[in-house]
Amino acid sequence: MKKLLIYLTVIGFINLGFSQIHQNYVDNYQLASVVINAPNYTYLQKVQDFNTPVRVKKLENQVASYNIKSDPIYDLAFEDKYKVIFEETKSKIVVTYDKHGNILTSFEKFEDVRLPQDIYASIANDYPGWAIVNDTYIVKYYQNKEEVRKIYKIEISKDDTTKNLRINSLGLIE
Predict the structure, then answer these.
(1) What are the tens digits of pLDDT across the range 100-143?
(2) Helix, strand or coil for residue 66?
(3) Contacts of the segment 109-113: beta carbons below 8 A, 24+ positions apart
(4) Which of 1, 4, 65, 72 is the most buried (most CB within 10 A)?
(5) Is the Cβ–Cβ distance between 25 and 1 less than 8 Å?
(6) Contacts of 143 by beta carbon, 8 Å cutoff, 6+ apart
(7) Cβ pair 151, 128 in contact under 8 A
(8) End-to-end alpha-carbon separation of the chain, Å?
């Protein structure tokens, strides 16, 4: 039994020794050039920030990458604006595209989203002991306006009393 343990120990050290030998096997690959096409990148820059919930980002990314020109209703000579509605469970975005595929306006409504920490802190400071009952996140985007309107409509309750709050994306109660 002693010999078996010594034998296994020696084999283990030999394997560890071989695993320390460095071998340089490098394969070189030539990659094709990558083109990222984001015609509505400015839309994403304006509507998304570090506080934007993940579910909201996913649907906004779909909106930004949607190609109106591939839609069967698209006709370059027919209309100059197209309204498209994107819907998921408790999420809806109504978008107006121009005939070139650029986003002109969007109205976004998301229910029961995960609230940013700033919003929780603001409610806890101003309304201690209150519970959040419902929340809705609303975004209004206009291409020609610099600022995007982002509002959280939150219903809070304590005992038998309820209040409706409007909080901006920075956590300030309006």
Answers:
(1) 888 999 999 999 999 888 888 889 999 999 999 999 999 999 99
(2) coil
(3) 109/136, 109/137, 109/138, 110/53, 110/55, 110/56, 110/59, 110/136, 110/137, 110/138, 111/135, 111/136, 111/137, 113/53, 113/55, 113/56, 113/137
(4) 65
(5) no
(6) 42, 43, 102, 103, 104, 105
(7) no
(8) 79
